[in-house]
Amino acid sequence: MDFLWQIYDLASNSLFLVLMLPLALPCAAGAIPGLIDRLRRRNLEQALPEVLESISSSIGAGLGLQQALTDISQKRDDETGKLLKKAIQRSHATTFDAALVEYALNSRSTLIQRVINLLTTAIEQDAPLQEVTNSMSIEYDRLNKLINLREKEMMGQSSLLLMLMCLLLPGIMGAMFALFGLASIGSYWGHIHGVMLPYLMASAALTVVISGRMLGRTKQALWWIPFWSVLSAMLYLGLFEGIQGSMM
């Protein structure tokens, strides 16, 4: 309880911080379902080239598309296999095309939905499915590699930006004001909190939005604004008060 009281005592330096502090953890928790769903989509997309290659091999062996997908669903134990099993079971009550559309919608991936649209078009136009799926397998494998490379680069830059603006900047400002504004020599700078806290919190919020935009996940990044804003402000206050207290 003493620790919580100290946190709220620090937070009382700014009305914005008092309002944001109770939202930090719930909003951060609200971002978790989005992260899980995105990982699920990426796992489905990563498996897509392998699925298309298996379809091409099965069709080359004389099987139809529905038989090929049935075999793949039975061999795979991951999320792709589960969704394909549902689609195959659904095809018994509806049409196979409708089951494929349902699989694409359940995946919640625009990449997979595009593939299903291409497959449906190829079926309607009597295109050679073996060649089509083999070409798609190669192209989507390249696309996945490019997506992974871009995300790796952007994730590094995004994380660095967050560290600089949400951790390093408030840390430097808190330490600097504490060292050069010692209360013991009559130059206490605590009054500057009213200006610095809104500034640091706004900087953190803007950084989170920019970071999310860099990764193409702006809406998901909005959930993290209270967390990073509060962390930035509390780091600034904690260093300021800690250094002031140790040097008195």
Question: Overview of this structure, please?
Answer:
The protein has 248 residues and is mainly alpha-helical. It is 85% helix and 0% strand. α6 runs antiparallel to α7 and α7 (129-180) packs parallel to α10 (225-247). The chain starts with a helix and ends with a helix.
Secondary structure blueprint with pairings:
Layout: H1 2-11, H2 15-60, H3 65-75, H4 79-93, H5 96-107, H6 110-124, H7 129-180, H8 193-215, H9 218-222, H10 225-247
For the structure shown, list the relevant keywords.
mainly alpha; 248 residues; elongated; 85% helix
The gist of it:
The chain is an all-alpha fold.
Report the radius of gyration as a whole number of Å.
27 Å
The separation of the N and C termini measures: 26 Å
The overall average pLDDT, rounded, is 84
| Strand segment count | 0
Classify the secondary structure makeup into a structural class: mainly alpha
Share of residues in helices: over 70%
List the domain count as a whole number. 2
In terms of per-residue confidence, which ranges show pLDDT below 50 for 5 or more consecutive residues? none
What's the multimeric state?
single chain
Number of helical elements? 10
- What's the story with the biggest beta sheet? none
Strand content: under 5%
Global outline: elongated
